[in-house]
Amino acid sequence: MSSARLSMGVTVVVLLAAALQGCSPREAAAPSRPSAQSGPVMLNNVSVAEVLNALTKAKLPALNPHDVTASACPTAGCLEATDTDTVSILKFPSTGRAELYAAAV
Questions:
Q1: Residues 6+ apart with CB under 8 A from 105
Q2: Coil, strand, or helix at residue 89?
Q3: How many CB atoms lie within 10 A of CB 78?
Q4: What local confidence, expressed as pLDDT, does residue 26 receive?
Q5: Nearest alpha-carbon partner for 67 in 53, 85, 82
Q6: What is the pLDDT of residues 31-62, one digit of tens each?
Q7: Cα–chain-centroid distance for residue 3?
Q8: Using an 8 Å Cβ cutoff, are 41 and 30 in contact?
Q9: Which of 8, 39, 68, 94 is the most buried if burial means most Cβ atoms within 10 Å?
């Protein structure tokens, strides 16, 4: 996979995840604060499948999707990953981990 394609994939994932999170009907008016009993707040619960569905719904090219989690995530540090003919979508456990990956590619 070329670094330009990978970089584009990371950018697309970050932008789509931000857009989906910002437009999500699940989003509360104000972010809740974590409590000792409830655990940490999930800031980004958008899955790779939801990003892929958003691409398809927007009629953007994302043909031949296939799960590459087992091969990509051990070195990338992601939770799940899907490749298509045009873009790679990776979901990371934190923004910090995503930034480290983006800086490396």
A1: 3, 6, 7, 10
A2: strand
A3: 22
A4: 42
A5: 82
A6: 444 444 565 545 578 899 999 999 999 999 99
A7: 17
A8: no
A9: 68
Find all residues with CB under 8 Å of 21, minimum gap 6, and list them: 27, 43, 44, 46
* 76, 64 Cβ separation under 8 angstroms: no
- To the nearest 10 degrees (0 to 180), the angle between helices 3-23 and 95-104 is 160
Helix ranges, the chain (H): 3-23, 48-57, 69-76, 95-104
Return d(Cα 1, Cα 105) in angstroms, integer. Answer: 11
Question: What is the model's pTM?
Answer: 0.59
- Whether the CB-CB separation of 88 and 76 falls below 8 Å is answered with no
Q: In the structure encoding, which two tokens stand for residue 95, read together? A: 């923004």
For residue 79, the one-letter residue type is L
Token match 């994932």: residue?
Answer: 13
Structure tokens at 49: 């499948």
Q: Return the structure tokens found at 21.
A: 């999170």
